[in-house]
Design goal:
CATH architecture of the largest domain: 3-Layer(aba) Sandwich
Number of helices: 8
Bound molecules: S-adenosylmethionine
Radius of gyration: 21 Å
Shape: elongated
Order of helices and strands: EHHEEEHEHEHEHEEHH
Structural class: alpha/beta
CATH superfamily of the largest domain: SPOUT methyltransferase, trefoil knot domain
Distance between the termini: 32 Å
CATH topology of the largest domain: Alpha/beta knot
Helix content: 25-40%
Largest sheet: 5 strands, parallel
Length: 214
């Protein structure tokens, strides 16, 4: 899976991409992530990417030219959908992630300020995704949420190939719930792990987990 991410704050992604599962997935080439600085595409002599809104009102709006050129450029090597992260998009979910994971490539566009010029939204965006009914300062965290959630569905990204199928909300498992997890030690500050989990009796463990789904 190839992700091309468009942002005016590319460094926000640095540490996230250098840790844990995502780092390993990049290294093993299960995923490829390219972060592009929209500002570099600005033809303004001060590399401006925002301007005041026509008609007045609070805040600034991302200007169309740098966005247009950045999307055009990235589309040359990425044929996937252009996804704009916006609080007004369709709410992201596990099933949306599963659908997105069927694509081989996608472009994630992060907004800032009051958002992007409507003409870009209408002419260049294939999909609008919200990560929830609240407003953040930018689309970078939402882009990371989408990228992380989709990546762990790519075969081979999680150490244990199929482990995402046991996750809550997974379509394959057809359940929206999760059972409680315990690890060592068997007793912690007087609290014992349920005996059945220590029994090694797989059928009984499965029955217990079914009962405990929440
Ligand atoms: N003026 C917009 C409004 O009232 O809905 C808010 C813009 S927000 C401050 C700036 C950018 O953050 C948005 O363009 C979008 O890219 C991103 N963003 C903020 N909240 C988001 C959310 N819940 N889901 C996805 N993207 C979000």
């Amino acid at each position: 899976m190839k992700f091309d991410i468009l942002t005016i704050f590319p460094q926000i992604f640095d540490s996230y991409l250098k840790e844990s599962i995502i780092k390993r997935a990049i290294k093993s080439r299960k995923i490829e992530i390219n972060v592009h600085d929209i500002r570099k595409f600005s033809k303004d002599k001060h590399k401006k990417v925002d301007d005041i809104p026509f008609g007045g009102g609070a805040g600034m709006v991302m200007t169309p030219q740098p966005l247009y050129d950045a999307i055009k450029c990235v589309k040359k090597s990425n044929k996937g959908p252009v996804v704009f992260l916006t609080p007004h998009g369709a709410t992201f979910s596990q099933s949306k992630a599963e659908k997105l994971s069927k694509h081989k490539e996608m472009i994630l566009l992060c907004g800032r300020y009051e958002g992007i010029d409507q003409r870009i939204q209408e002419s260049m965006i294939d999909m609008e995704i919200s990560i929830g009914k609240y407003v953040l300062t930018g689309g970078e965290l939402p882009a990371m949420v989408v990228m992380d959630c989709v990546s762990r569905l790519i075969p081979g990204v999680l150490g244990k190939e199929e482990s995402h199928m046991e996750d809550s909300f997974s379509k394959k498992l057809d359940r929206k719930k999760e059972y409680p997890h315990y690890t060592r030690p068997a007793e912690f500050k007087g609290m014992r792990v349920p005996e059945v989990l220590l029994s090694g009796h797989h059928k009984k463990i499965e029955e217990w987990r079914k009962k405990k789904l929440k």
